[in-house]
Design a protein that fits this description.
By secondary structure, the protein is an alpha/beta fold. 39% of the residues lie in helices and 15% in strands. It has 11 helices and 8 strands. It has helices at 57-65, 90-97, 108-122, 134-145, 172-177, 184-198, 207-220, 224-235, 241-244, 264-273, 294-309, and strands at 19-22, 28-34, 40-45, 68-73, 127-132, 150-156, 251-256, 278-282. The chain has an 8-stranded mixed β-sheet, sandwiched between helices. The longest helix has 16 residues, at 294-309.
Length: 311
């Protein structure tokens, strides 16, 4: 099993406290930085229901040691960022899941604008952007909305928005929306159940580390209604396939062959849509960020950033 990834930051590395950035009239994002502010800016965008701490500290440290000024943040409706309004019922979510018309409180574009607003708050005219799952959808949308602000793009276990690719295992939706019961321990139990389904069979993670991560997630703030709002943004997103062909920044697409949350066809379609994109497919990797793959992620993001610098 992989060992715990909760590690201390090297004494010579700067890590900020958790900070707040107003990015619009409605939204304030919580974020944290790692590494030298003079390093190359790298924005890490997390996926559905995931706070910034799901970008493991050890991975952020490795990326900072690779020359990046790393920023991870909580999307709206997660962690310590703003909570928005708008109730999403499971019935409305089910209608959207099968392609029927269903209004969403906000869109993937709104989430991308949040991220661009955070970059503006940081004083970053442009940055390297890496996103996981829903975060990959956000990162792709950022690149389409403001290509001059995205130096390089890394889309990890994500998809294009086209319904024919990147599908979710049908067995997962009932688990994701099922009531979990009240309290911290109930949340941890369900988190272990979900990660047991979507985790990497080839890179199993330590249960004590998963428990620690779930407990930390609970302690930083859980909003089940917010997760449903994010889920609606995902299932109502537009198909970006044709527009992705417009992108010219260096792009890396990474995906696991054992991903049950977003089928590997989503990664393959993303790489096929973006001219010159590099595709890295890993056997045994599911829908998580196992410590055994941290060097693979770091080398890939660094390599993609170097392609941008060489232009």
């Amino acid at each position: 099993m992989s060992g715990p990834s909760y590690s201390a930051v090297p004494p010579d590395m700067t890590m900020s406290e958790e900070l707040l950035a107003p990015v619009s009239a409605q939204v304030e994002l919580c974020y944290q930085t790692f590494g030298d502010p003079q390093g190359e800016p790298l924005l890490l965008v997390m996926g559905l229901g995931g706070p910034m701490t799901w970008w493991p500290r050890e991975l952020c440290v490795q990326l900072a040691e690779a020359g990046f000024h790393v920023v991870r943040y909580d999307n709206r409706d997660t962690g310590r960022s703003s909570r928005l309004a708008g109730r999403v019922t499971t019935a409305r979510l089910a209608r959207a899941f099968v392609g029927a018309p269903a209004p969403a409180p906000y869109s993937i574009t709104d989430l991308a604008n949040d991220a661009l607003g955070l970059m503006a708050h940081l004083g970053w005219g442009s940055a390297h952007v890496a996103g996981v799952s829903m975060g990959g959808m956000i990162a792709q949308t950022m690149a389409l909305a403001a290509p001059e602000r995205v130096r390089s793009l890394t889309s990890i276990m994500s998809t294009t928005g086209r319904r024919a690719v990147g599908w979710q295992s049908p067995a997962l939706l009932p688990t994701l929306v099922a009531p979990r019961g009240p309290g911290r321990e109930a949340y941890i139990r369900r988190a272990l159940l979900v990660w047991g389904i979507i985790g990497s069979p080839g890179f199993p993670q330590d249960e004590a580390e998963l428990r620690r991560r779930a407990g930390e997630t609970w302690d930083r703030g859980i909003d089940e209604a917010g997760v449903l709002r994010q889920m609606m943004a995902v299932v109502t997103q537009t198909d970006r396939t044709r527009r992705l062909a417009e992108l010219r920044m260096p792009t890396l697409v990474m995906h696991g062959l054992a991903d049950r949350m977003v089928h590997v066809s989503g990664g393959r379609a993303t790489a096929a849509a973006i001219r010159g994109a590099e595709l890295v497919v890993v056997p045994g990797w599911g829908h998580d960020l196992p410590a055994a793959l941290f060097p693979t992620f770091t080398r890939g993001i660094r390599r993609t950033a170097d392609r941008a610098a060489s232009r």
